[in-house]
Design brief:
The complex is a heterodimer. By secondary structure, chain A is mainly α. Chain A has a single domain, classed as ABC transporter involved in vitamin B12 uptake, BtuC. Helix content of chain A is 75%, strand content 1%. Chain A contains 13 helices and two strands, in the order H-H-H-H-H-H-E-H-H-H-H-E-H-H-H. Chain A has a two-stranded antiparallel ribbon. The mean pLDDT of chain A is 88. By secondary structure, chain B is an alpha/beta fold. Chain B folds into two domains: 238 residues, Rossmann fold (3-Layer(aba) Sandwich); 237 residues, Rossmann fold (3-Layer(aba) Sandwich), CATH 3.40.50. In chain B, the strands form five sheets. Chain B has a six-stranded mixed β-sheet, with helices on both faces. Chain B has a six-stranded mixed β-sheet with strand order 17-18-19-15-20-21, sandwiched between helices. Chain B starts with a strand and ends with a helix. The mean pLDDT of chain B is 89. Classes of the chains: A mainly alpha, B alpha/beta. At the A-B interface, helix 1, helix 8 and helix 9 of A face helix 10, helix 11 and helix 12 of B.
Chain lengths: 316, 499
């Protein structure tokens, strides 16, 4: 009996190892495959690809927190859009004011989401789908006739050092907070069992509220990077960002219902994998329609692998 | 044909790395009540769940009346003549009583694709009447009935079609005395009709009076099958634990004076629909018991004192004047609470033992910069889990894989780690075997002696009488009586105040 127990333990260990290393193996495999298929032109355009990672990776960090506690956020694209317009409008005044303006705008929408989710107790995906349309409407109203242009000053900040620096700072701070303070444990506990977490003394409503505000603020910061990169906000700014983030996180091995199996690596590996995959497909000459098809299939496969079926019912 | 109803042959079943059943073989006869006993995690429920199609066994076979049965769900099991009343709630919300009774067998009421609801309700009402449960109406939603009545509906559901084997898994702990009597009556009826009852219970006196034959399991292994007329309680305990159970069970002292120092004062506490106008004081080093029927509101007392009740009025005040109105304040002021609903309110199932134990103590465990180290968390969790002798592989294991008794140990480890001074224990030994019960009683006694105060809410009168300095009896949301600790107290004097 002892032997069979050890054997089972080993089997489970190997299974967990495969589960946690699949995204990394996938990332390496995708990089190699596309480099061979494109005869190395992918490597040569690495700067271009890197340029697309920042926004996704920064805002995915906020959504990572939300998903850890079992929530979802579909309004990320609209948050990025509104915050981008705010950054553009304020960039003429002062760049620091513009950055904080973006963050505040994001946090405000996050608080708006949180109010309906936490105080009015509406499921998060319903609230955020509503706010997605609501704020997309605002963006269209502001930017339909002509894109909202930022002051020329923002181009001074369009350097890899600044963009990469902001991304790295967000990741490192978030990682340390998530991994080495009680914050991460509380978030995962809420994801795994909210009622019991409340009975263990965690102010769950407060944590949930703060996380939505925080996630909005982080995406507000991503809006600054977005404007530095693009120079103006169009009516489509940030459109589909929420899907990109969701796919990225799931590709990174994030269980869709959050909980104990969540790891911070999911953000980094997932964002990289997503951006490399989409760029690889574009370089292969695939049309946008085909891209969506393939993304959909890959997304489904990963969800199927990483879904924690026992706790799927707890998506909030 | 012999009088053997069911042959269990070499049945094995594993959950991941845990071997729940290991090559179990024994026979069950016709027309008997066959009890299945063993400690938590000994494999009783696993065995009956495999028999009734809830789980699927890994190896072995069940031979019913000479024919192998291998149901893949409960409906198939019903068709083979096997039914089960499960430990937890086995009825579905959102359906009527009749729909619950005939769940999976609606076909018999369907004509040309249309369900004949009135025929179904009529049949269900007839059955309910036959069983003597007239107050339950077939067309009502099941949600309108309390836990106890829903269990009665399950009795009808599991037995109306005269199955050859009825499994009753740990149902009595959830029932009041009346409900138990109803259940016993039907068990005896099934037996008299020549069918078999497989009865799982932790209550050994109950097992001894009711059953004809008793099979003992330990750690998933078959130990022995004995006639209940040829064994006593101590003999059973010995078979279950595998050694003599020695030492005190309940606390032995009687005439000890309880300190007059009040640590918690509860004044005019009401929770709409559950309790009203509750007043009492908890003293230092006291074990204060709350007893009553399960719907008497006593379970809300724990929540109310923990600041977890919804819409509570009145005040809960500590010795230093702090008012307890929410959970974080309660925990910060050294109050601990273990819920009757262990799996939902006390523990985060899909989370490690480590995080479950550390959660309320995170502030204490973090350094000045609010940082935590994995090693410190692990050592902390390990220390208290081991102190409670929790059976586990490591503290990184998920709580969901533990047995009931070990889950409760994790809950207690959490609060011992927090070093709480006031413990609100709601049904601390619910569904737990004697060995762990004994551990918990001894722990309570030790805590009491070290000056900690305990409120113990329990449906088991014996443990209230055995452990408490004072017992408050609840009835219909009100306090109906209070009894001091005494040698002469018996269950009847408590029951008289309960009903």
């Amino acid at each position: 009996m002892k032997d069979s127990k050890a054997g089972e333990l080993k089997k489970q260990f190997i299974y967990n190892l495969i589960r946690s290393s699949l995204p990394i193996i996938g990332l390496i495999a995708v990089c190699i495959v596309f480099n061979i298929l494109t005869h190395g032109s992918m490597w040569n355009s690495r700067k271009l690809i890197l340029n697309q990672i920042y926004v996704v990776m920064i805002s995915a960090t906020g959504v990572f927190f939300i998903m850890s506690m079992g929530g979802l956020d579909f309004s990320q694209g609209s948050i990025l859009g509104i915050a981008s317009i705010v950054v553009c409008l304020l960039s003429g005044v002062n760049i620091i004011v513009a950055i904080f303006g973006g963050i505040l705008a994001g946090a405000a929408i996050g608080a708006f989401n949180a109010f309906f989710y936490v105080k009015r107790k509406i499921k998060s995906f319903i609230v955020t789908i509503c706010t997605m349309f609501l704020f997309r409407g605002f963006i269209k109203y502001m930017a339909s006739n002509s894109p909202v242009a930022a002051s020329m000053k923002v181009y001074d900040y369009d350097t890899t050092a600044i963009k990469l620096g902001i991304t790295a700072a967000v990741l490192i701070i978030s990682f340390v907070v998530f991994r080495f303070t009680g914050f991460g444990i509380k978030l995962k506990a809420i994801g795994a069992g909210e009622k019991a977490t409340k009975f263990a003394g965690v102010r769950t409503d407060r944590v949930k509220f703060l996380i939505y505000v925080l996630s909005g603020a982080i995406t507000g910061l991503a809006a600054f990077v977005n404007i530095v990169k693009n120079g103006s906000a169009t009516a489509n700014v940030g459109s589909q960002l929420e899907t990109q983030i969701l796919i990225a996180l799931v590709l990174g091995g994030m269980p869709i219902s959050g909980g104990a199996k969540v790891r911070f690596e999911n953000v980094i590996v997932g964002s990289l994998l997503y951006v490399v995959l989409t760029n690889g497909l574009i370089m292969m000459g695939l049309s946008t329609q085909m891209m969506q098809l393939i993304q959909g299939i890959v997304f489904l496969i990963f969800v199927a692998i990483f879904a924690d079926r026992e706790s799927l019912s707890v998506i909030k | 044909m012999s009088d053997i109803r069911l042959e269990v042959k070499n049945v094995s079943k594993s959950f991941g790395i845990t071997k729940a059943l290991d090559d179990v073989s024994f026979n069950i006869s016709k027309g008997e009540i066959h009890a299945l006993i063993g400690e938590n995690g000994s494999g009783k429920s696993t065995l009956t769940n495999s028999l009734s199609g809830i789980y699927h066994k890994d190896y072995g076979s069940f031979i019913l009346d000479g024919k192998e049965v291998d149901p893949s769900n409960q409906v198939e099991a019903n068709n083979e003549g096997i039914s089960i009343i499960v430990q937890e709630l086995g009825t579905l919300d959102g359906l009527t009583v009749a729909e619950n009774i005939f769940l999976g067998h609606e076909d018999s009421f369907v004509k040309m694709g249309i369900k004949n609801t009135s025929a179904m309700n009529r049949k269900a009402n007839e059955l309910l009447k036959k069983y003597g449960f007239d107050r339950i109406k077939a067309s009502d939603m099941i949600d309108d009935y309390n836990f106890e009545d829903r269990k009665l509906v399950e009795i009808v559901k599991a037995t109306y079609f005269d199955p050859k084997i009825v499994v009753i898994d740990e149902t009595t702990t959830a029932l009041s005395r009346e409900g138990r009597d109803e259940l016993y009556k039907h068990m005896k009826r099934i037996k008299a009709e020549g069918n078999t009852v497989i009865f799982i219970s932790h209550d050994l006196p109950e097992v001894l009076t009711l059953s004809d034959t008793i099979t003992v399991l330990r750690d998933g292994v078959y130990i022995d099958t004995v006639k209940s007329s040829e064994i006593d309680e101590d003999g059973l305990k010995k078979l279950m634990v595998g050694r003599d159970v020695t030492g005190a069970y309940y606390r032995a002292d009687y005439d000890e004076e309880v300190s007059s120092e009040v640590v918690m004062k509860v004044e005019n506490v009401s929770v709409p629909g559950l309790i009203s106008n509750i007043n009492f004081e908890l003293h230092k080093g006291e074990i204060l018991g709350f007893g009553g029927l399960s719907e008497s509101g006593m379970h809300e007392i724990g929540k109310a004192c923990f600041g977890a009740s919804f819409d509570r009025t009145g005040s809960v005040t500590l010795a230093d004047g702090t008012h307890i109105n929410d959970i974080p304040t309660a925990i910060a002021h050294s109050i601990a609470y273990t819920s009757k609903d262990r799996d939902n309110e006390s523990l985060i199932m899909n989370q490690s033992i480590r995080d479950n134990i550390c959660l309320p103590s995170l502030d204490k465990l973090s350094n000045k910069a609010h940082m935590l180290s994995d090693k410190k968390l692990k050592t902390f969790a390990d220390e208290y889990a081991k102190q409670m002798s929790t059976k586990m592989q490591s503290v990184d294991q998920f709580v969901s894989n533990l047995s009931g008794g070990n889950k409760q140990k994790v809950v207690l480890a959490r609060w011992i780690g927090k070093d709480s001074d006031i413990l609100l224990l709601d049904s601390p030994t619910r569904g737990i075997d004697i060995k762990v019960k004994q551990d918990i009683y001894q722990l309570m006694d030790k805590m009491r002696k070290s000056g900690k105060s305990i409120i113990m809410i329990s449906e088991e009168l014996a443990e209230l009488i055995g452990m408490c300095d004072r017992i408050i009896i609840m009835k219909d949301g009100l306090i109906s009586g209070e009894l001091p600790r005494s040698r002469d107290m018996d269950e009847n004097s408590l029951i008289a105040k309960m009903v």
